[in-house]
Records
---
Amino acid sequence: MVQRILLASPRGYCAGVERAVETVETALQLYGAPIYVRKQIVHNVHVVRDLEEQGAIFVDEVDEVPDGANVVFSAHGVAPTVHEESAVRHHTVLDATCPLVTKVHAQAKRYAREGYTVLLIGHAGHEEVVGTLGEAPQQTILVESVDDVAHLHVPDGAPVAYITQTTLSVDETAEIIAALRARFPEIRGPRREDICYATSNRQWAVKEMLPEIDLLVVIGSRNSSNSNRLVDVARASGVDAYLVDDASELEEGWFDGVATVGITSGASAPERLVVGVCDWFRELGVTRFEPFHIVEEDVTFRLPTELRRELALADSQA
């Protein structure tokens, strides 16, 4: 029977997710419903459902948004072609791209402009990767694994640079970068990996907690890259781990013979879902809940310029 729960800290919302969700909520308050959102604003089904109830309408592409309407671009970023299409349709665009993703886009453009072949370390099909690839599609090659490095076809003598998706495994990314440096000794890259502080901190917290737990529960949606990486970190060290959207997906059988359970949540999972999981364990009779604190996070990002301007105008007229 489970005797103790360790709650990883930091966990849950990062500054980019907070900014993206607040962007949609603020837009609904200022402009009223509907507010259109391209793709999931963040990768969490509960967040999307909550915003839908407030009047947000989620679409796959901007051609589904009526001409002249308000549209929010998700935290994962978009390719320049998406901005161009919205401009043609006279959309009022509120870009909720995480500033750390925007930084990667800027690096991709700069390297391409300087004539580099850009190697993007990331997962094919992830929205962030799709958006970043769109900055310089003719000069960018996706690298998903160490094996990919050996099979890269780069023009002879071409200068090479790398950038990374922000929500990757810290350890796996380090291995890929090492392989790239071994093959391309002159490769250029950012001074530090582009993996965001929140992704790194959540993985670090799990690593530090693993020696004290028998099983890890990660709260996050299936399409959340950073949540999946937390599961990978535990399993790579031989600790069982499960990814759940909420307490309804927990199964008592997982905890047979388990004394200590660790709980964490991905960067797009609201804290109320952690509370729900803890309540589930309380109903099983667990009474020991202990924080496992690693580092304080005090990063904040300002809302998009358009919203800040509107808010200032509203305040001046109040």
---
Amino acid sequence: MSTVHFKQVDVFTQVPFRGNPVAVVLEDKGLSTEAMQRVAAWTNLSETTFVLPPSSPAADYRLRIFTPRMELPFAGHPTIGSAHAVLEAGIARAKGGKLRQECGAGILDLQVEGEKLWLDSPKATETVFAETSDLERMLGAKLKGAPLIMNVGPRWLIAELGDAATVGAIGPDMAAVAALSVRLEIGGVTVFGAASDGRSAIHVRSFAPAHGIPEDPVCGSGNISVAAFLKRAGRLSDGYLARQGMQLGRDGEVSIRFDGDKILLGGSAVTCIEGTLRI
């Protein structure tokens, strides 16, 4: 049995217990993929990560990311939360204000700006989704425009609703969303609508029941996918603030900015738990 150090980090917030937690195992003790998956299933968080030595000299560290049911090539909130943990633990230091993370999606740059971390997101690709009426039945709401499947490592079906009130009120048919996700090989469905709170541009919700996550409190890859959806339509091109998680008692804040063709995902993080795991 091995003992490994870990942190539980709340992401997209500076206030503990208001964002989206990720468990970060900070040591490489030769754990097998099966052992990592068991730990992720046990934490029962949307993601658990494992920090490993990089396989490329171009990276500062390597990250493996697991949901309770499977490994992911990339995910936004675990990347930001793990970078926070790595910096806090002294495993890596920013060089010129940057960290370089190796993961299944390749080597990604993170910019460190005070307490906020900015992730240089993977390039998005899109697929047309024509089953609009079926999706409306699953969500219990009318869509505003055509939905798209956006691929940023994880694949999300992105749908725009009328406004933030509509986003907050929906109660999706989780069994139907799970079946659709399995059939389309996507992570789940992310919806968004225009906000009127005076702080944010949009409100977002993400549903991934096929991965054991009925609703993700604050989803990085879902927000990147929404940003790619909006960028494709030529909207909110100067960047914006999104809020997510209010229906789950959270209040995550996700910053988006654009740099040419790049989408940058920004957020703060705070450590809530530090300790050891016996694996």
